[in-house]
Amino acid sequence: MHDFGLLLAVIGLLSFSLVFILVKRLILLQEMQLQKERYKSRIGLANQFEVKHKQVQGCWWCSLGRVLGSNNKKELSKLQQQLISAGYRKESHIGAFYFIKYSSVIFALLVTALLWAVIGFSPLFIAIVPVFFLLIPEKVLVHIGQNRLDKISNHLPDFLDMCLICMNAGLSYLMSLQRVSKELKEIHPEICYEFEYLLDQVKMGVPRVEALRQFAERNPTKDIQNLVQVLIQNEKLGSSVSEAIYEFSRRMYQQREEVMEEKAAKTSAKMAVVIMPFMLLPYVILMVGDRFAYFGS
Q: In the predicted model, what is the mean pLDDT of residues 83-95?
């Protein structure tokens, strides 16, 4: 009887969640319609509204995820930064993340409830497993973003060296970025995509300094931020870009060489801890065998 009551409670909770989602979805659609009507009163803005929301409306599960998601601006800004770092820039990706997050929680809740009803799992799993699935999507997103930023940092010196070759051949540094991004797109797609996005912003009329700052915000790594500072300082002072990039690239190679030397110096101490037991064991066997041979004689 107690198990049946718990099962009814789980079903009731899921029913309440479904009704809550539908009501929240209807409220959101009403707000969007009112916003559209307000835009229609101003010439030209209704088309912009349609372009902005067309892709989100075309993806029903992204729209559903956006309804399920939080409306806190601070939390949305943090999530959007994490998605951008992972390479997901579209507005619909926020809804997709929330849909995956909450659908995995509901799936885990259903599976644990089924296992409890059929096999007799502890009801504690019904509370613990969904919480685990609630937290793991954000951890995975942060891990993907960190791996992507590490790839951008690792490929940056090679990218800059290719840009220097193009600049020494007579191209401007923006044309060099465009040419190298095109040539290395298949080898280093992450960093080429970021520089292509930067060039698109400049072509659309965004000032170079502002575009570079946004580039640093999208890629919060130490190397990218230092590079952006060098390029912004060059824009203000009007000095040679090729010399600044050359010095920056050489410093990056020197820092990485120092890091590799430091790791190599620590390797011998770490290997000694691993090798010492294997070297000590034969010595102990020889010493004990010699002692037995001495006493036997």
A: 80
